[in-house]
Amino acid sequence: MSGSWIGTIVRFVVSAIVLMLVAYLIPGIRVSGFVGALIAAVVIAGIGYLIEMAFGDRISPRSRGIVGFVTAAVVIYLAQFIIPNYLSVSLLGSLLAALVIGLIDAFVPTELR
Fold it and tell me: Against a cut of 0.70, is the pTM above it?
């Protein structure tokens, strides 16, 4: 494995751990174990990538500000429909999760670049 693959795997593992922490702290979000969190992290990253490809960096979930925050909340909310057995989130839960993940990401970057 090359270094970039290892870095990508580490980022997904960190993202899964952050998602599990957020699910523990916030009502309205449920993740079914570490494997579910890992699958959710991959799906959320994939949806975010597709949104970024379709609409550009200004509406990316990675962007800072209110647009990035709302986009991240929408991505988290939409992910539950793709993997309903692994992730369940309310609308308020997705907003709170986007806020907490954004705060955690400021200290422990989990996004894929």
Answer: yes
